[in-house]
Known about the structure:
Layout: H1 9-23, H2 29-36, H3 40-52, E1 56-58, E2 74-76, E3 83-88, E4 92-98, E5 104-107, E6 111-112, H4 118-138, E7 145-150, E8 154-155, E9 160-161, H5 175-183, E10 187-191, H6 192-203, E11 212-217, E12 221-227, E13 230-231, E14 246-249, E15 252-255, H7 257-260, H8 262-270, H9 279-285, H10 289-294, H11 296-317, E16 321-325, H12 333-346, E17 354-357, H13 364-393
Parallel strand pairs: 3-7, 7-10, 11-16, 16-17
Antiparallel strand pairs: 1-2, 3-4, 4-5, 4-6, 8-9, 11-12, 12-13, 14-15
Helix pairs in contact: 1-13, 2-3, 6-13, 11-12
Amino acid sequence: MLVLKPEDTRIKNAITLLHLLLKEEGISRVGLSRITGLTKTTVSDIIRDFLSMKIVEESESVSTGSVGKSPTPLRVRKGAVYTIGVHLGREKVRTTLIDAQMNPILKKKGTLYGERSFKNILSKLFLSINRTMMESKKLGIEIGAIGIGIPGPLDSQMGIVRQPPKFEGWKDVPLGKMVKEKYGLPIWIENDANVGALAEKWCGGGKQTKNFMYVLANEGIGAGIVIDDELYQGTYDYVGEIGHNLFYDRGKFKYLEDIAGADLLIEDVRAKGLDVKNIKDISKLLQTQKGKELVAPLVRRAARWIGAALINAVHVVGPQTVFVGGKMSVLEDVLIHPIGEMFSQYLFGDQKVDVMLSEIPEDAVTIGSAIYATMKWLENRSVEHVEERKKSNA
């Protein structure tokens, strides 16, 4: 899954091999050549560069039983780069540390904001990153990059947070620049649902799925879209904003996330006289008779709204599977079953689209943010090396 879209052929070849090495640990030069169609000379040349850059390492050769030299397995070095992934959500900030093989090393429960002023949220962001860095240092790990997942709209290339709904005080914030100045590290920001889709692709149920949607159902509702194994980002970073599908409800047009977001569901349950603080409280209530009678209908109503938005998106994108993650995924079958019923009843044609819970509902954005930054770091390092070689050969 490419994050960078290179024009230079050598850069494109290098990044293609890099992604195969990330996905196929233990693949050999011969295997890389066979899958990509690149010549053995081209593959060997690029792998030589990766070895010299300490991005890739060789493992012990595995005997194939054939005459001749056994192929040498290759893999991305765990220590090529260590990356912090951040989920800057609407209620709290969470962090995760991963290595270059996308393995989580540290997962932090998260820091609640309390006061939701811009200044306080920023201080909690820095506090969370600082704590993760301190724990990393105890493990002898030096951080090489930071990725941040945050609700859109964004200008991800410039690192600017435009004006996320339900995120007061944030307008045209140069977050990438601010964090880079604080830590002196490469920083990348991306839409939270997009990086959630990356996590699903690399670590969850999307590993073997070429086309899927990942739905992040929180206070806002967004979708990350993977087409032919690539994260689709569009032109203006506004892809998958299903939370802003319009519906006509009670005499006026409303956005989906303003009638079916996690915060609205909590308000509806409280209006029934029930004491709930969060979605997990609602999930517990659903296990009781009172919850089944009073709360389940409210969840099913929100699920049908979400299902309608997803059907509209499916008719445009055509995915094989829809993974539902985010806070609302703890509602499990009470949420998923009505969406599945909507699909059975209203999907056009004979297409079969599976709807299932994400395999990484709570940590998808932090893991995905770290994966995004890791991939960008590795890709940029490869590009820099190619450019250096061009200059030296000029």
